[in-house]
Amino acid sequence: MTHAAAPAGLPFMKMHGAGNDFVVIDSRGREAVTTPALARALGDRNRGVGFDQLAEIRDATEADFALDFWNSDGSRAGACGNATRCVCDHVMRGLGKAEVTLRTARGILRAERLADGRVNVNMGHPQRLWSDIPLAREVDVMHLPLPGDPVAVGMGNPHCVIFVPDAKTVDLRALGPVYEADPLYPQRTNVEFASVTGPDRLRMRVWERGTGVTLACGSGACATAVAAHLRGLTGRRVALDLDGGTLEVDWREDGVWMTGPVAHVFDGVLTPGFLAALT
Question: Are residues 201 and 237 in the same domain?
Fold first, then answer.
């Protein structure tokens, strides 16, 4: 791996949305720099910076910017809703705008800042066909042949949503890896455990593929809200209480909108020595 900016190091930002934390690298105006090796090294919370996902901002001709996502194990992620909201807030502030468009693997998305400072992003339409999620074979996506009677939903990432009496009591570290690696999901899956706590309100906890237990997951919140509505448990607008905070999801005609808090924690620079060790 080569770094044209190695003599001066590589700048990055640390952000989080409802405790779901990210390293963000701004590569506008230059070649993309993230590789699996860099993502793994940065994702190490003892020897790197630590994150749930890495987001790299890139130039786009058909939108204000583009975003690529990586997991801490070096694998690619197709979507990351909380990182999207955080980066959109950063770009909006830089452009002096309250609304932006961005390109991800999900296509062209739109985000806006609300009066209370939270950011609302359209995460696109849910993927509900077994082949689009994707699953390994044709099954009833509303009732997967797995323990707990899960629902399969795609939101750029595959999701396995399991409704339980009390999500707070679920042993995520024991059960999450089992579902993540089930052969029914050829690309592995995020795993959400959710329980109904009130009218149009859910308690949700998540195991993310390639990362593990996280305090929140934006695409997972969207998938869980879609699954809950399809199961008749909630309406199309849902509040989800996660370990790191509350997200709101509104499944509209133009896509699944997700709203929540954003935080820009600090800026840093990766040293030339850290980068050189990856070559």
Answer: yes
Same domain, 13 and 117: yes
In a domain, residue 142? The reply is no
Q: How far apart are CA 130 and CA 145, in angstroms?
A: 13
Sign of the CA dihedral running 207, 213, 216, 218: negative
Its domain, for residue 213, covers 151-253
Determine whether 222 is an active site residue: no
Catalytic residue among 80, 88, 160, 222: 80
Please say if 80 is a catalytic residue. yes
Q: How far is CA 132 from CA 22, 126, 137, 141, 188, in A?
A: 27, 10, 11, 11, 14
- Provide the CATH number for the domain around residue 53: 3.10.310.10
Residues 248 and 268 both lie in one domain: no
Q: What is the pTM of this model?
A: 0.93
Residue 23 amino acid letter = V
Residues forming a β-bridge with 202: 196, 240
CB 185 within 8 A of CB 135: yes
Same domain, 72 and 178: no
**In a domain? residue 209:** yes
How many structural domains is the chain composed of? 2
Q: How far apart are the C-alpha atoms of 142 and 279, rounded to whole Å?
A: 46
N-to-C CA span, the chain: 5
Which of 86, 88, 160, 217 is an active site residue? 217
Instruction: Give the model confidence (pLDDT) of 81-136 as tens digits.
Output: 999 999 999 999 999 999 999 999 889 999 999 999 999 999 999 999 999 999 99
